[in-house]
Design goal:
mainly alpha, Protein Binding, DinI Protein, Chain A, three-stranded parallel beta sheet, 4 helices, rod-shaped
Length: 118
């Protein structure tokens, strides 16, 4: 009888440890949803470029501003592709989320950092 109780206890502890590891390693990370406000990042950059263009005294300064805008346009798609790999989560546009959950993470600051000029 003692052997049966010991085997049952060991089996239950093994199953409990396996379920806890599965929950911590697989289930919880898969519930995380990253949200990003691309429009906010785009509007901020657009305002910055507009300000640079309107204050640029020479044609060379205007060309530099246009090159900065072109570089931003090239970095944005790759930065958006990197976000899901960085957070290991599903990334959605902020406007598609009806309301935040405890598992929602705002990735807009990370996007801003990724599209900044190196």
């Amino acid at each position: 009888m003692k052997a049966l109780l010991l085997h049952t206890t060991v089996s239950l502890l093994t199953v409990a440890a396996g379920l806890a590891a599965y929950d911590r390693g697989v289930v919880r990370p898969s519930r995380i949803v990253g949200v990003v406000d691309v429009a906010e990042v785009y509007r901020a950059k657009e305002a910055e470029f507009t300000q640079i263009l309107t204050r640029a005294p020479t044609e060379e300064d205007r060309q530099k501003a246009l090159l900065m805008a072109r570089a931003f346009a090239q970095r944005l798609p790759s930065a958006l592709e990197e976000l899901p790999r960085d957070c290991n989560c599903l990334v959605l546009l902020k406007g598609t989320i009806a309301g935040p959950t405890p598992y929602t993470v705002d990735l807009t600051p990370q996007l801003r950092k990724k599209v900044e000029a190196p």
